[in-house]
Amino acid sequence: MVVLLQKNNALNTFYTLTVSEVKRETPNAVSITLQIPNDLKEKFSFKAGQYITMKHQANGTEIRRAYSICSAPNSGVLKVGVKKVENGLFSTFANNDLKAGDTLEVLPPAGKFTVSPELGTVKNYAAFVAGSGITPVLSIVQTVLEEAPNSTFLLVYGNQSPSETMFFSNIKKLQEDYPNRLSVQYVFSREDAENAHFGRIDRSVVNLMLRNKYKDTQFDDFYLCGPETMIDEVSSTLKENHVNTKQIHFELFTTSEGDLLVEAHDGNTKVTVTLDDETETFTMPQNKSVLEAALENKLDAPFSCQGGICSTCIARVIEGKAEMRKNQILTDGEIAEGLILTCQAHPTTPTLVIDYDDV
């Protein structure tokens, strides 16, 4: 994983952007292109693999959702992919009702699942992705191919069928433009197709790539994006093949509901929060997350997924301790430096001082 991006006040400010295009990518997915005014181009510059958070009102309730940017940074285009999910308020709205000319409230790009290739870099990259996990990886693939002309990329991409494959035509065009540098292996779970593997991305597929089809290629970095079960299996198989953990980069779109809390959280804590150069103090029950309590106390704390799978709500513990219910983002080193995901953090001490600005 790359180092944390520097936060500042602008990262908690939503900007009104106009939708310039909504394109049907599959029967259950669309891409949304946003128009960026000249005075906001710097704020909305991004690295390949980052995401944006969009805000929408549904039946009087504010919902926020993070979606990965699928366009390349040097394209001059800000585009995200949105796959419809069952009971998904924003994804259903985006697929059924959103149209060009509408406006959305959007936070500037953020996220740590990134690549920044250099012109003279010679690397072999590989990605294992499933479903809408292609969205950040498409940006990463394009960026490597365009900005590192001596590097190669292997994309292993799993879906139910060709018709459900997001950005199929984009990937085909990249294959035509970079025939000697981009290799694509499709994996379909519900349909046999020519030159595709039938099944799901699992241990056998990873071993097929590393030990058979590309046994003579030494890969430098691996990018994984998709369901947690796939990422766990691919990661463990890569490690079995002697891939260093530092070479494995991943981003979750969904995660299990595992609870890592060990200590009892049945008391109250006096919390002091620094946010946008202002400090507020309140008392909260320890059985709630720091983010929940901050929002209840009318603080405009940054957040997006609230599920511990993005980095929007990160803060630093200055005094006291907090235990996270779930963590798929922060490394051991970052935790040792005092960083927490406030949507998952529960106080364990009588007082807790955190700073959203100091990350």
What structural class results from the helix and strand content? alpha/beta
At the fourth level of CATH, the homologous superfamily of the largest domain is Nucleotide-binding domain of ferredoxin-NADP reductase (FNR) module
Number of domains: 3
Biggest sheet layout = 6 strands, antiparallel
Order of helices and strands: EEEEEHEEHEHEEHEHEEEHEEHEEE
Helical region count?
A: 7
**Which radius of gyration do the C-alpha atoms yield?**
21 Å
Multimeric organization: single chain
Strand order of the largest sheet: 4-3-6-1-2-5
Estimate the strand proportion: 25-35%
Give your account of this protein's structure:
Pfam families: FAD_binding_6, Fer2, NAD_binding_1. Its cofactor is FAD. GO terms for molecular function: 2 iron, 2 sulfur cluster binding; flavin adenine dinucleotide binding; metal ion binding; oxidoreductase activity. Residues 12-116 form the FAD-binding FR-type domain. Residues 269-359 form the 2Fe-2S ferredoxin-type domain. There is one protein chain. With 359 residues, the protein is α/β, with parallel strands linked by helices. The protein has three domains: 15-110, Elongation Factor Tu (Ef-tu), domain 3 (Beta Barrel), CATH 2.40.30.10; 124-252, Nucleotide-binding domain of ferredoxin-NADP reductase (FNR) module (Rossmann fold); 268-355, Roll (Ubiquitin-like (UB roll)). Helix content is 19%, strand content 32%. It has seven helices and 19 strands. The protein has helices at residues 89-96, 134-147, 168-177, 203-213, 228-240, 290-296, 332-336, and strands at residues 15-26, 29-35, 51-58, 61-68, 78-83, 103-106, 124-130, 152-159, 182-188, 197-198, 221-226, 248-252, 268-275, 278-285, 314-319, 322-324, 339-341, 345-347, 351-355. The strands form four sheets. A six-stranded antiparallel sheet has the order 4-3-6-1-2-5, with helices on one face. A six-stranded parallel sheet has the order 10-9-8-7-11-12, with helices on both faces. It has a five-stranded mixed sheet with strand order 14-13-19-15-17. Strand 1 and strand 2 form a beta hairpin. The longest helix is centred in the middle third of the chain and has 14 residues, at 134-147. The model is unreliable at 1-11 (pLDDT under 50).
